[in-house]
Amino acid sequence: MMDDLDTQDVRELKGVGNAMAEKLAKLHINTVQDLLFHLPIRYQDRTRVVPIGQLRFGDEAVIEGVVTGCEIKMGKRRSLLCRMKDGTGTLYLRFFHFSAAQKKQLESGKKIRCFGEVRRGSTGFEMYHPEYKLIDEGSTLGESDQLTPIYPLTDGLTQPKIRQLCEQALERLTPYNLKEWLPDEIRQPFSLPNLADAIRFLHHPTTDANLEQLKAGAHPAQYRLSFEELMAHQLSLIGKKIKAKEDKAIQVTESGTLAQRLLSQLPFSPTNAQQRVFQDILHDLASGHPMLRLVQGDVGSGKTLVAALATAAVVQAGFQVAIMAPTEILAEQHLTNFTQWFTPLGLKVAWMAGKVKGKARESELADIASGAAQIVVGTHALFQESIVFDRLALAIIDEQHRFGVHQRMALREKGLKQGFQPHQLIMTATPIPRTLAMSAYADLDCSIIDELPPGRTPVNTIVVSDQRRGEVIERVKQGCQEGKQAYWVCTLIDESEALQCQAAEDTAILLQEQLSNLKIGLVHGRLKAQEKADIMARFKAGELQLLVATTVIEVGVDVPNASLMVIENPERLGLAQLHQLRGRVGRGQAASHCVLLYKAPLGEQGKARLSTMRETSDGFKIAEKDLELRGPGELLGTRQTGLWEFKVADLQRDKALLDDVQQAAVQLHQRYPERIPPILSRWLPDHARYLNV
Ligand code: ADP
Ligand code: MG
C-alpha cells in the first residue's frame, strides 16, 4: 500500500532532483499531492482542425489551409504577412521575426497547418508567430486526442516538463491515497463530485468537455475544488475567532454612569440602532474574553457615538481606550469629538499622530504610560513600539478596510505585554453585502447600524456631462452666494498622487478665475498635515466657501453647512467610494445636492453605475451593485490582499457558492472537527500564521 500522496516528496518522481525540487517549491509544490493541486490555468484544444469561418477572436486553435500570398509589410514594424485560406475564410499569419528562407517556404500554393491565438489584426483574423508546419512534410503539430493543459510555470520549468510530472502524479493517484475530507452528507446536497475524480478530470478533461464551461470556471469539477478551498478559508477564520475567544480580557459588567452622563450632555438621543449596537458591545465586554466586533454603519449613521459609549463603559471600569483612524484628518475629527465629550466629564484625551513631536510627544507618551490619559486618539502612530499603555482594554479601529491585518496583530501584541487582550471594536462605513461579509468576516461578530439619525434629508444626486461644466460652476456660485458651502472633488484614479494633487491645484486655480468672489481652499494628500488641518478648520468655520479637494476628504469630514458637492470623473471611482464622498453632504438641515460631472461619452457600464448612485442612497444596496459590477476584491480592500489568496477559487466567479460553503463549514465544524486540520493544511499551509493574528 502506498503512502498518502501528501507524504510523498516530489523527488520520488522521475526527473526530479534537488534543483527541480527547488523550482517546484517556488510554486509551493513539495509533495505529490501538491502537484495534483497544481491545476491548469487553461486548456488548448489541439484535438481537431477548426474551419477559419468558425473562429472567434481570442480562440486558440489548429487551422489548416493553403497559402495564397506572402509578402513583407513595412508599416510601423516590419513584418512578414502570409495569407491563407481554407474554403471557409481567410486568415493572416504575421511574423515580426523571420528569415528569407521562411518567406520562401511559405510560398503560394503550399498547404500548411498552424496553431495559435486568433487576434484582431488590421486585416481581420491574424495569428502572430503561430506554430506551423507544411503538411506535405507529414509532421504533426503536437496534435493530441486530449485537451492540452497549460499550467502556471516558474523560471526554468517548461510546459512539457510540468505536464510530464503531473502525469506521474496522476499515475500514483488511487482512490485511497488522496483523502476525501468532505463527507457524503455535505457532498450530496451540493452535488459535489468526488475529489480524486475532480482532480483527474481537471488535469485531463475528456475531449467532449465543454471548454467554455471550463474557461468560466463553472465545471462541477472546478466547483468541487473551489468549494473545498473556500471552505478551508472559512474554517480558518472560524478557528481564528474561536482561538481568540479563548484568550482572557478584562470584564466590564455594567455600562455605568459615565455613558449616561455623556448622553445627557448631548443635544440628541441615540437612535434605536445605536442603542442596540451598544448593547451588543456591552454583552461582549462582559464575557471575560476579547470582543472582536465589526460595526457596519452607513456614512452618517453615527458610529462615533457608539464608539464613545463603549469608551465610557471601559473607562468607567478603570481602563484605557485607544481610538485609531487611518488618516490624520479623520483622527483629528475623533479627537475633537472625544475631547469635547469627555473633557467636561473630567477625563484626559491624549493625541498621538505623526505630527506630534518633541516635548508634546514626550508628555503624551508619559500620560499614556502612567494612565493619566484614559483615552488616546491617533493614527497608526499608535501601533509604534514606543507607545506603552498602562492598561489598554479597548481598541477602537475606524474604517478598518484601510488597516492591514498586521496592524491588528501589532495591537494584540501590545495587549500580550500587559497580560490580557484588549477588546477590539472595528468600525467600517463601507457596507459589504451580507453573504460576502459572512465569509470575509467570519472571524468577527458583526453589528449593523441600519438607521440614520432623524431629520436627514436625502442628497439629490444629478448626473451631468462635463460639456455642461459651465452651468455647474454657475450653480456653485449661486449656492455659495446664498451662504451654502460646497466641495469640488477632483479624481484621477491610477495616476500618481503627484498628478492627482496637480490636477486639484489646476482646478482650484481655474475655479478661482471663474469664481473670483468666492473664497476657495485646496486640500490634497501632499500638503503637510498642519496645512491640511488649517484649511479644514477654516472651511468648517465657514471662512472658505468652496473646498477643492482630492479624495482625501472621503472619510471623516463633517461640515454640516456644506450642502453641494461636485465630483469630477465619477465614472472612475468605485460606487462605495462615491457613496463615501457623497456622504460628506446631507449632514445639515438644508437640502443637499451632489453633481456627478462625468467625462462624456460614458459607456454602458458607466451609465449603469452612475444611475445606481442617482437612484439610491442606501450603502448596502450600493455595495450589492458594486459587488456585481466590480467584484469582491474592490469591496474588501486590504482584507482581500494577502489574507485571501486562492489557488482555485475566485470570489467574484464563485460568489454564488458562498452561502453553501458557509453552511457546510458550520456543519463540518460541528460534526467532523477532526477533518479541519488536514483541510487547512491542504489549502492553507500557512494557516498557523493567520491563526495568530
Ligand atoms: P459616521 O457613522 O459616518 O461616523 P458620525 O458618527 O460622524 O457618523 O455622525 C454623523 C453626524 O450625526 C454627527 O454630526 C453626529 O453628531 C450626528 N449624530 C450621531 N448620532 C446622532 C443621533 N442619534 N441623533 C442625531 N444626530 C446624531
Ligand atoms: Mg465616522
UniProtKB/TrEMBL annotation:
Residue ranges occupied by any Helicase ATP-binding domain in the UniProt entry: 284-449
Listed InterPro entries: ATP-dep_DNA_helicase_RecG, DEAD/DEAH_box_helicase_dom, Helicase_ATP-bd, Helicase_C-like, NA-bd_OB-fold, P-loop_NTPase, RecG/Mfd, RecG_dom3_C
BP GO annotations: DNA recombination; DNA repair
Lineage of the organism: Bacteria, Pseudomonadati, Pseudomonadota, Gammaproteobacteria, Oceanospirillales
Catalytic activity: ATP + H2O = ADP + phosphate + H(+); Couples ATP hydrolysis with the unwinding of duplex DNA by translocating in the 3'-5' direction
Protein name as catalogued: ATP-dependent DNA helicase RecG
Enzyme Commission designation: 5.6.2.4
Family: Belongs to the helicase family. RecG subfamily.
Organism expressing this protein natively: Marinomonas spartinae
Pfam family of the protein (one): DEAD
Role summary: Plays a critical role in recombination and DNA repair. Helps process Holliday junction intermediates to mature products by catalyzing branch migration. Has replication fork regression activity, unwinds stalled or blocked replication forks to make a HJ that can be resolved. Has a DNA unwinding activity characteristic of a DNA helicase with 3'-5' polarity.
Domain Helicase C-terminal: 482-628
CDD domains linked to this entry: DEXHc_RecG (cd17992), RecG_wedge_OBF (cd04488)
Keyword terms of this UniProt record: ATP-binding, DNA damage, DNA recombination, DNA repair, DNA-binding, Helicase, Hydrolase, Isomerase, Nucleotide-binding
Gene Ontology molecular function: 3'-5' DNA helicase activity; ATP binding; ATP hydrolysis activity; DNA binding
